[in-house]
């Protein structure tokens, strides 16, 4: 369920690497999206009744509220599943919500893995995602052959909720990297450094990271619309803040990165990718971190 940038290539890999004896149904609420998708071995539909009797339900949805509605809402999928079915949630949602929803499913006799993924749409297409799983060892062992079709790193992180907690930590470290680039690169340019030469250093020197290698070339070209939108990705920092507040863990660097994120959102860049965090700093300092042709 959920056939967006991640869900559809995941569904295709589940089918392409399957046993041939399975029935695979791919569902999305958007009729236009469903009409545009086709793959041998997959039934693509908007009809939720097509999952009737399913042994495994895989979710790849935008946020926790959508996951909850799809499972338990007025037209929820839970009553349609086979008794004892397994629910694998690849969505990225808050740790506490993952635990609550998982426990509600287990109370009805279902097995559950919270299994968010990392690797971006390119990893979903290639089947090279990292899959971080929370749940019982038995459920993880039973579902590992299925998850091996979509990822090259399929890891059992611990009990229910551990997958989401791991994903939150991974994403927050990533966000901190991008926030640091956003505030420091314009300062460097304002001090007279050449953007392209500076980019060569931060993408190859000791400060290099996946964030710099992905976003800095795009910032130089003035491209801010290729990645996951800021407004949607903000949920990762909200999840980290919830953990911090609920358990009293101080996260000062994360809080600072969150403020940088919020600056970009308040400046109207929510529909753009995380690289757009550089734009408010450029505006404040009156510079552009661009290559001559960017």
From TrEMBL:
All residue ranges annotated as the 3-hydroxyisobutyrate dehydrogenase-like NAD-binding domain in the record: 161-278
Location of the 6-phosphogluconate dehydrogenase NADP-binding domain: 2-158
TM region(s), chain numbering: none
Keyword Protease applies: no
Pfam families in the record: NAD_binding_11, NAD_binding_2
Active site: 167
Keywords: NAD, Oxidoreductase
GO molecular function: NAD binding; NADP binding; oxidoreductase activity
InterPro entries hit by this protein: 6-PGluconate_DH-like_C_sf, 6PGD_dom2, 6PGDH_NADP-bd, HIBADH-like_NADP-bd, HIBADH-related, NAD(P)-bd_dom_sf
PANTHER family per UniProt: 3-HYDROXYISOBUTYRATE DEHYDROGENASE-LIKE 1, MITOCHONDRIAL-RELATED
Name recorded for this polypeptide: 2-hydroxymethylglutarate dehydrogenase
Source lineage: Bacteria, Pseudomonadati, Pseudomonadota, Alphaproteobacteria, Hyphomicrobiales
């Amino acid at each position: 369920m959920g056939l967006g940038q991640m869900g559809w290539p995941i569904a295709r890999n589940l089918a392409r690497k399957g046993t041939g004896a399975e029935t695979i149904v791919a569902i999305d609420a958007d009729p236009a999206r469903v009409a545009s998708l086709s793959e041998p071995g997959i039934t693509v539909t908007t009809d939720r009744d097509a999952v009737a009797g399913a042994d495994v339900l895989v979710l790849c949805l935008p946020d926790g509220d959508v996951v909850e509605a799809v499972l338990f809402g007025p037209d929820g999928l839970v009553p349609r599943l086979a008794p004892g079915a397994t629910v694998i949630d690849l969505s990225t949602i808050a740790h506490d919500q993952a635990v609550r929803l998982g426990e509600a499913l287990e109370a009805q006799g279902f097995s559950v893995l919270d299994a968010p993924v990392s690797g971006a749409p390119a990893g979903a297409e290639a089947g090279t995602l990292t899959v971080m799983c929370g749940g019982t060892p038995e459920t993880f062992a039973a579902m590992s052959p299925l998850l091996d079709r979509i990822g090259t790193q399929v890891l059992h992180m611990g009990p229910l909720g551990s997958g989401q907690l791991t994903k939150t930590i991974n994403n927050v470290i990533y966000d901190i990297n991008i926030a640091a680039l956003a505030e420091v690169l314009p300062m460097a340019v304002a001090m007279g450094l050449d953007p392209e030469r500076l980019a060569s250093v931060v993408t190859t020197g000791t400060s290099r990271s996946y964030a710099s290698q992905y976003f800095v070339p795009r910032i130089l070209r003035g491209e801010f619309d290729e990645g996951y939108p800021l407004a949607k990705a903000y949920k990762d920092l909200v999840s980290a803040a919830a953990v911090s507040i609920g358990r009293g863990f101080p996260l000062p660097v994360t809080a600072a990165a969150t403020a940088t994120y919020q600056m970009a959102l308040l400046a109207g860049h929510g529909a753009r990718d995380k690289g757009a965090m550089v734009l408010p700093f450029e505006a404040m300092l009156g510079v552009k971190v661009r290559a001559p042709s960017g």
